[in-house]
Amino acid sequence: MLQSLWQKYKKSMLIPSILVISGLLFYFYFSNSDSSHPQEELIETIQPIEEINLIESAEEAVQQQVFVDIKGAVMYPGVYELQSDQRIIDAVQLAGGYMENADTQYVNHAQKVQDEMVIYIPIKGEQLGDVSTNLLMLPTESQNKEQKININIADVETLTTLPGIGPSKAQSILSYREENGRFQTIDDLRNVSGIGDKTFEKLKDSITVK
Questions:
Q1: Least enclosed by CB within 10 Å: which of 1, 54, 154, 196?
Q2: pTM of the predicted model, to two decimals?
Q3: Where are the domains of the chain?
Q4: Which CATH topology does 64-145 take?
Q5: Residues forming a β-bridge with 178
Q6: Among candidates 191, 187, 192, 193, which has minimal Cα distance to 209?
Q7: pLDDT profile of the chain (210 residues), mean per 10
Q8: CATH annotation of 148-210
Q9: Rounded Cα gap, residues 194 and 127, in angstroms
Q10: Cβ atoms of residues 113 and 66 within 8 Å
Q11: Three-state SS string across 43-60, please?
């Protein structure tokens, strides 16, 4: 009799046990499956943020770049690329430093550079009318008023911007200035080899000696 009761008990407990085990398996399967989705969504959210930060960093680096034109008594005059937080002294160093006859008493080496800034370094003995506008010509200054070229301090590159003056005539002007000293009047430019009356008429309104 005990044996038959045991058999009935086992049969009666079998089905509930199967149901309980199935329920537990179902619960663990779907809880693990659901928990993976937030992680995937988090990864998908982080990746675009990182890409945006990289793009913003690249754009900011480009915006900080400035180009400065340094002329006069430096070893290698020209246009140089700097960052907006750099100073005049950095531009001078990029240009190879000063020549021996450079006059640096009015140069503010600590001033920050600006895009399209023109820096002119005079030589000793040059007489500059307005020191501030001759040494540092910012874009606002050069755009707001017409600038005449001082043939007593201009380099070859600047002289070639004059009408009728190419590299050869520009070098002749520099050679004449070195041999004979400063031009006293703009008419003295007629004494330079290669500059005749027609050339002088074209450029006389664009030059000064002061």
A1: 1
A2: 0.41
A3: 64-145, 148-210
A4: Ubiquitin-like (UB roll) (3.10.20)
A5: none
A6: 187
A7: 50 54 58 51 54 54 75 90 91 93 86 86 74 53 59 88 88 91 91 89 87
A8: 1.10.150.320
A9: 27
A10: yes
A11: HHHHHHHHHHHHHHHHHH
